[in-house]
Design brief:
Layout lengths: L23 E5 L4 H11 L4 E6 L2 H13 L3 E6 L5 H15 L4 E4 L16 H26 L6 E5 L6 H5 L14 H18 L6 E5 L17 H12 L10 E3 L2 E2 L3
Parallel strand pairs: 1-2, 1-4, 2-3, 4-5, 5-6, 6-7
Antiparallel strand pairs: 7-8
Bound molecules: NADPH dihydro-nicotinamide-adenine-dinucleotide phosphate.
């Protein structure tokens, strides 16, 4: 895949005649961190961006900040672990825009630092899977009918290289990729596998779905220990959200290129 961002023009809905040609995107967990910068980056392309966030105050603050920066942002109440919330979010976008062009499944949690497999707290494992994996399936399936109305739908799943089994189990330094974590790392491995299954089922559609790794980014997620800025972390998602029609699907990418499974 080329490493340069490919900017596609706003999408024309082919099935519903009078809909706006402005590209419509939804970013989950967009109130802060990488998600916020993905929303800002997509907004800078002139897109209309739904700021998916579960907390009203944080959501509205992010929407206001994005609007002040010139982004056509709108708030979407969204808890990815909650069926009713996700159904309502899809309903809001359907009513407001009639379709969705780009979905970025960015919301995620780590489940905290103590994740040695031998002493695992099973509730933590379940909670992380519910957010990072089931949540993505829940949101994707709720939005799919709206994505199918787009001429060039894109789905981006924010994964992590700590979900790469190759990097986790490889020789030498590769073994040090991220801490031992029985919930977070496997949740991203699972998410990568889920991404491939969607790509297989949707192979004969215009939908491209890929997983992206933002690198080690300074956010709340890691107590701001990351070495990259959220803006740098957002770049891979923006690239995968703006893939041309002949772009890849079912892949796993970081800025430098393909991440091994
Ligand atoms: P942050 O903790 O800064 O942001 C996470 C976002 O997800 C917040 O907006 C949070 O909302 C939201 N979120 C969490 N749970 C839910 C939920 N149930 N419903 C809706 N929103 C939810 O993390 P990052 O920006 O660092 O991470 C973004 C993504 O990038 C994650 O998927 C993460 O796994 C991935 N990633 C991050 C890396 C890093 O180094 N930072 C490295 C590799 C991958 P709230 O404010 O309400 O908690």
């Amino acid at each position: 895949m080329p490493t340069q961002t490919v900017l596609v023009p706003p999408r024309r809905a082919d099935s519903i005649g009078d809909m706006s040609e402005q590209t419509i995107a939804l970013v989950t967990g967009a109130n802060k961190g990488i998600g916020y910068e993905i929303a800002a980056g997509l907004g800078a392309l002139g897109w209309s961006v739904g700021v998916g966030a579960r907390d009203e105050e944080r959501r509205e603050a992010a929407v206001a900040k994005l609007r002040a920066a010139g982004v056509d942002a709108f708030g979407v109440p969204l808890d990815v672990t909650d069926d009713a919330s996700v159904t309502a979010a899809a309903g809001l976008i359907e009513q407001r825009n009639g379709r969705l062009d780009v979905l970025v499944n960015n919301a995620g949690i780590t489940g905290g630092p103590a994740q040695q497999p031998t002493t695992a707290d099973l509730a933590t494992v379940r909670t992380v899977m519910e957010t990072n994996v089931i949540g993505v399936i829940r949101v994707t399936n709720a939005l799919l009918p709206l994505l199918r109305r787009s001429a060039a739908p894109r789905i981006v799943n924010m994964s992590s290289s700590v979900g790469s089994l190759t990097r986790q189990s490889g020789p030498g330094g590769e073994l040090t990729t991220g801490p031992v974590a029985v919930a977070y790392s496997p949740s991203k491995t699972f998410l990568n596998a889920v991404t491939v299954q969607y790509a297989r089922e949707l192979r004969d559609t215009a939908i491209l779905i890929n997983a992206g790794c933002p690198g080690f980014v300074a956010t709340d997620l890691n107590g701001f220990r990351g070495v990259r800025t959220p803006e740098q972390g957002a770049a891979i998602a923006i690239k995968l959200a703006t893939l041309p029609d002949d772009g890849p699907s079912g892949g796993f990418f970081e800025d430098a290129g393909v991440v091994p499974w």
